[in-house]
């Protein structure tokens, strides 16, 4: 089968790989019909995530048709068109029973923090992902969900990560009616977090980035204020000034490890990897939220240490909430929002790229060319 193949930092290609096989009675084999390149895939692509091994297939956002099931799979049948959450969850462990499907204790033998994630290095279990024609899906009775009748598959593929991650970012912010919410990062997740903040009752939503076309997209899609931090002397001072010097009620970090805007953070977090990514957005979030406010983190950082102003967290009495989205927990509500027209996920998709051209897709998305917001890969069989 054709599959994306990681060859080292900034080097990916499509190659022929062996077909995945059923390895456990609860496995399913899925024929992929759409897969996305996620902003967090760029952390892998750029070599910022430890233990990203040559030969890995990325891709944790995908939908497809069930081709084969293990002997103990009862929830799915061959021919079902399913969306597959990026979390790999057993559904039985202590954490899954609490709805913390992103923290499954059984699916990732490599770590005790995050559960398994498709195509996201051996720190997340070493599973191959869905930027391929076929993919093996473990615990197929737990998370894969049949796409509701009438739902477009490109809405469905966005429900595997982007929509739930943006929604959970807003949810973790504990937004109260009338709150001012600031989102750092106008990528797909940041834009979705801004959009979803309104659903929780925000009175004002501001998004901060430095890429003009994305700021313009955010203004139109999420009906929010959008500002370029390169046009400010200091984004923290800007936010305090525009909130009567109180600070925002809730600040969401939707950037993570590859934040721009601070030379020292860029050198230590992106160039020399002395810390687990540039924590610029996290600094701005902590310093611009009001005393007693909430910082919600969905931007991805590496598992090693980061330089953050923890003293300010203490002295301001902040609450920091962070996690990988628990997709399975959120899906019923989000499917309803899509079906009712409250959220239009596929509107974020700007580029549809043949799987065979995956290298061009990564280059385009990474360099933010051609006004790219969200690229989707289409395997040959799904184009017939």
Automatic annotation (TrEMBL):
Protein keywords: Metal-binding, Oxidoreductase, Zinc
GO MF annotations, alphabetized: oxidoreductase activity; zinc ion binding
One Pfam family linked to the record: ADH_zinc_N
Obligatory cofactor(s): Zn(2+)
Domain Alcohol dehydrogenase-like C-terminal per the UniProt entry, residue ranges: 188-264
Residue ranges of every copy of the Alcohol dehydrogenase-like N-terminal domain listed in the record: 25-144
InterPro entries from the UniProt entry: ADH-like_C, ADH-like_N, ADH_Zn_CS, GroES-like_sf, NAD(P)-bd_dom_sf
PANTHER family, per the entry: ZINC-TYPE ALCOHOL DEHYDROGENASE-LIKE
Protein family: Belongs to the zinc-containing alcohol dehydrogenase family.
Protein name: Glutathione-dependent formaldehyde dehydrogenase
Lineage: Bacteria, Pseudomonadati, Bacteroidota, Cytophagia, Cytophagales
């Amino acid at each position: 089968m054709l599959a994306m193949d990681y060859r080292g930092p900034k080097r990916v290609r499509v190659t022929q790989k062996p077909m995945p096989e059923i390895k456990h009675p609860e496995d399913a084999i899925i024929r992929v019909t759409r897969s996305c390149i996620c902003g967090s895939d760029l952390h892998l692509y750029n070599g910022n995530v430890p233990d990203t091994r040559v030969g890995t297939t990325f891709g944790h956002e995908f939908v497809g048709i069930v081709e084969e099931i293990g002997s103990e799979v009862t929830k799915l049948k061959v021919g079902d068109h399913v969306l597959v959450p990026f979390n790999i969850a057993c559904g039985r462990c202590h954490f899954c029973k609490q709805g913390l499907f992103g923290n499954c204790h059984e699916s990732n033998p490599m770590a005790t923090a995050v559960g398994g994630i498709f195509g996201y290095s051996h720190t997340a279990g070493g599973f191959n992902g869905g930027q391929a024609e076929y993919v093996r899906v473990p615990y197929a009775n737990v998370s894969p969900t049949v796409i509701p009748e009438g739902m477009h598959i490109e809405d469905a593929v966005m429900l595997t990560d982007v929509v739930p991650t943006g929604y959970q970012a807003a949810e973790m912010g504990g937004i109260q009616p009338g709150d001012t919410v600031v989102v750092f990062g106008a990528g797909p997740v940041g834009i979705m977090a801004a959009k979803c903040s309104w659903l929780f009752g925000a009175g004002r939503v501001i998004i901060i980035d430095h890429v003009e076309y994305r700021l313009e997209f955010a203004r139109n899609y999420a009906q929010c204020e959008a500002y370029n931090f390169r046009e400010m002397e200091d984004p923290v001072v800007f936010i305090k000034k525009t909130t009567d010097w109180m600070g925002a009620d809730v600040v969401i970090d939707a950037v993570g490890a590859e934040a721009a805007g601070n030379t020292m953070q860029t050198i230590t977090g992106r160039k020399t990897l002395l810390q687990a990514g540039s924590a610029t957005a996290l600094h701005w979030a902590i310093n611009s939220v009001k005393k007693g406010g909430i910082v919600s983190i969905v931007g991805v950082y590496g598992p090693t240490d980061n330089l953050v102003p923890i003293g300010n967290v203490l002295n301001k009495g902040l609450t920091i909430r962070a996690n990988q989205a628990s997709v399975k927990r959120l899906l019923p509500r989000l499917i309803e929002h899509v079906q009712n027209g409250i959220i239009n996920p596929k509107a974020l998709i700007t580029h549809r790229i043949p799987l065979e051209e995956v290298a061009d897709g990564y280059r385009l998305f990474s360099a933010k060319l051609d006004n790219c917001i969200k690229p989707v890969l289409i395997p040959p069989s799904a184009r017939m």
